[in-house]
Amino acid sequence: MTLDPQKLNEFVGKMVGDLGAAMSAALVVLGDRLGLYKHLAAAGPSTPAALAERSGMTERYIREWLAAQAAAGYVGYDAGAETYALSPEQAMVFAEEGGPAFMAGAFEILAAMFRDEPKVAEAFRSGKGVGWHEHDACLFRGTERFFRPGYAANLVPSWIPALDGVQQKLERGARVADVGCGHGSSTVVLAKAFPNSRLFGFDYHGPSIERARQAAAEAGVADRVEFAVAKAKEFPGSGYDLVAFFDCLHDMGDPVGAARHVHETLDPDGTWLIVEPFAHDRIEDNLNPVGRVYYAASTLVCTPASLSQEVGLGLGAHAGEARLKEVATAGGFTRFRRATETPFNLVLEARR
């Protein structure tokens, strides 16, 4: 093969950009953990010394961190005033924890990926998996913080209304199971929006269930939400009007077995809500920035999680609608449709 110097230079340039982005990720984790983005957003344009005083940090470190953030385009720099500031858009992404575009939590997920890479490397060799519970705690915390804004922005305004008759049931008072609930963000969002309904959150990861109970208490909805440790194929109860799986079906070793259990526990007129990462059915259609993120997460977290469990189907985070329909159909569901979507989510409805 003949080497093309221009293509080589272009590819090296891409690598420099990717390297800078990867290194900046650690600085985002640092700035988030130390509260630097929130301090800068609250203070407005600031010198390194002013931000250091406000945050209680050392000025020399703050100066270097701010310069790196400006070079990344994560904060703005006014050369005349020698001050740094967050634009409204940058503040929404890095400093507004409850906002619809908050993304600092995603960088905690990245931290966990680097810390757990040796475990995944060993799984590559052995063919075994890496269970969700075996990952660094940054993954659990980061996942909750990353997905929470999307649930807050979309779940009640658009996803629930897109389901056939579900909103009316929730308003009157319904039984809801949130399976794979993690820290309970989705459960709490539903509980706050539909006070007449009773919600049950299930996850096999005990520490996450403990955190979910705290979140429900903090949100003032503990009187209508119960959390319990349970696997997707074994969660208790029956007659559910709605069973929801948010971004978790592809992580399961036996998603067909989970689908069968959902089928058994649903009310005859009940609905299975499946929210999954947005993916087309063909690999070539997923070779884009969103696919890049999801395939990476699938390699390091989702597929190892599935392969660590019984059956180990290994759907992966980019399974696509057709493959997910096969799972639901094998579990006994006869009706399956895409209710709605976002650039990041497929929102699927399955019924008996």
Architecture blueprint of SSEs:
Layout: H1 5-33, H2 36-43, H3 48-55, H4 59-72, E1 76-78, E2 83-85, H5 88-94, H6 104-126, H7 137-159, H8 166-172, E3 175-179, H9 185-193, E4 198-203, H10 206-219, E5 225-229, E6 240-246, H11 255-265, E7 266-277, H12 289-307, H13 321-330, E8 335-341, E9 345-351
Helix pairs in contact: 1-4, 1-6, 3-4, 6-7, 6-12, 7-9, 9-10
Describe what you observe in this structure.
By secondary structure, the chain is α/β, with parallel strands linked by helices. 52% of the residues lie in helices and 16% in strands. It has helices at 5-33, 36-43, 48-55, 59-72, 88-94, 104-126, 137-159, 166-172, 185-193, 206-219, 255-265, 289-307, 321-330, and strands at residues 76-78, 83-85, 175-179, 198-203, 225-229, 240-246, 266-277, 335-341, 345-351. 43% of the residues are buried.
Task: Summarize the entry for a quick read.
43% of the residues are buried. The protein has 13 helices and nine strands.
